[in-house]
Design goal:
By secondary structure, this protein is an alpha+beta fold. The protein has 9 helices and 8 strands.
């Protein structure tokens, strides 16, 4: 039998092997670049956590204003905002007898730690009318660690708030429940933010289009600027009627939900 038909097959096999080798080389280079980037960001994150003792992320660096060309776009404030220039997000009965001011950054791992432990208790006291919550959101971790996850998530939260405070709260909770490692800047990817939003039931065309178009990015930058002028030096921070609350014990762990409720009742004089 002739061996000629095998030659094209051998040539094809060699071409396939060369393509696979080139693909593997590119993949190894991409993986190496990812490792190098994580090392650089990881060092920055370690410095931040060392400064704050693992209890709250300390504010440092610049303004947290990422966003490129969108920075010069007109400011469109979502519906349902309050405070100076619409930079405050209120959840709960606006006529509640007490006010809980909450200072957070969606990229902050310590905020997630507290939210996981006490988030339901925080919301329950707003839902029963003990206080209204005023959220003051930050984006300084984008400057501290690099990236744009804080500001991107905050802009998307504006799209949720434009629908209702309840949708903002659902999205707020979902962002913390699904928060990526702050070193990876996972929320810098709009598709990741939209995926988390969909898990919370936020997937209307109006919401998705506003997120993709960065409609509320200039507003988010304005909110971040207001946080930087607040005098708050770390996240999470909470103040009941202007008095700062102690949210963590001496070991750096969040107080329990029962302890939080008792603290609020004592501070509000309702116990």
């Amino acid at each position: 039998m002739s061996s000629k038909p095998n030659k094209p097959q051998n040539h094809q096999q060699k071409s396939t092997a060369r393509r696979e080798a080139l693909h593997e080389a590119r993949l190894r280079e991409q993986q190496a670049e990812t490792r190098r980037r994580r090392i650089v960001i990881g060092v920055s994150a370690a410095l931040v956590l060392a400064l704050c003792g693992g209890v709250a992320i300390a504010v440092s660096g610049g303004s947290g204003h990422s966003g490129g060309a969108a920075a010069s776009a007109p400011v469109v404030a979502p519906a349902n905002t309050s405070g100076p220039n619409g930079t405050v997000i209120t959840y709960g009965n606006a006529n509640a007898p007490h006010t809980l001011d909450v200072y957070e950054d969606f990229r902050c791992p310590i905020c997630k730690k507290f939210e996981t432990s006490d988030g339901q208790a925080v919301q329950a006291l707003a839902d029963n009318g003990t206080y209204k919550i005023q959220y003051h959101m930050a984006a300084f971790l984008d400057d501290n660690l690099g990236g744009k996850g804080s500001i991107t998530a905050l802009a998307a939260a504006g799209a949720a708030l434009n629908q209702s405070p309840a949708d903002f709260k659902k999205f707020h909770d979902a962002l913390y429940a699904n928060q990526p490692d702050e070193q990876t800047d996972g929320y810098g990817d709009v598709n990741t933010v939209l995926y988390v939003a969909a898990k919370a039931g936020l997937n209307s065309d109006a919401f998705v289009n506003a997120v993709k178009a960065n409609t509320y990015l200039p507003w988010a930058q304005q909110v971040a600027t207001a946080f930087n002028s607040s005098g708050v030096t770390g996240t999470p921070t909470m103040k009941l009627d202007g008095k700062q609350l102690t949210l963590f014990d001496s070991s750096g762990n969040p107080i329990s939900a029962d302890q939080y409720t008792a603290l609020i009742q004592q501070s509000a004089g309702t116990k």
